[in-house]
């Protein structure tokens, strides 16, 4: 798989900011990377620790999870588990957020998971 390519049809998602970050066209402050995902700090953090985990394969949103690509979600959660332990926020807690669609607050059409921690997080979020 070449990074930045769509899961549907193989076309390059040239306007996708996360595909550009994965491809190295836009710099990021990386926390973790493997052959399936990239984790990096959010450029507009909402908590002392705020990072994102994105699959390298372009998947638009949670609505586009299929039998063929669903294993990426469990891999992302394993990666999050590793990172929160490395950042020493696992004991006090953290929040994992996935926004889906316009009403859900999704602003980048590439599935991604925000992880926020190192402060008390209120509910409801907004």
Counting DSSP E segments of at least 2 residues, the number of strands comes to 5
Structural class: alpha+beta
End-to-end separation:
37 Å
User: Main sheet: which strands, in order across?
Assistant: 1-2-3-5-4
Oligomeric state: single chain
Q: What percent strand?
A: 15-25%
Series of secondary-structure elements, N-terminal to C-terminal: HEEEHEE
- Describe the sheet with the most strands: 5 strands, antiparallel
Contiguous helical run count: 2
What is the 3D shape? globular
- What's the CATH class, please? Alpha Beta
**Computed Rg:** 14 Å
Number of separate domains: 1
Name of the CATH homologous superfamily: HIT-like
Motif (Histidine triad motif): 110-114
Active site: 112 (tele-amp-histidine intermediate)
Pfam families: HIT (PF01230)
InterPro entries: Histidine_triad_CS (IPR019808), Histidine_triad_HIT (IPR001310), HIT-like (IPR011146), HIT-like_sf (IPR036265)
Overview of the structural elements:
The chain has one domain: 2-Layer Sandwich (HIT family, subunit A). The protein has two helices and five strands. With 126 residues, the chain is an alpha+beta fold. Strands 1-2-3-5-4 form a five-stranded antiparallel β-sheet, with helices on one face. The longest helix is centred in the middle third of the chain and has 16 residues, at 71-86. Helix content is 17%, strand content 20%. The protein has helices spanning 17-22, 71-86; strands at residues 30-33, 37-41, 49-55, 94-97, 113-117. Mean pLDDT is 91; it is low at 1-12.
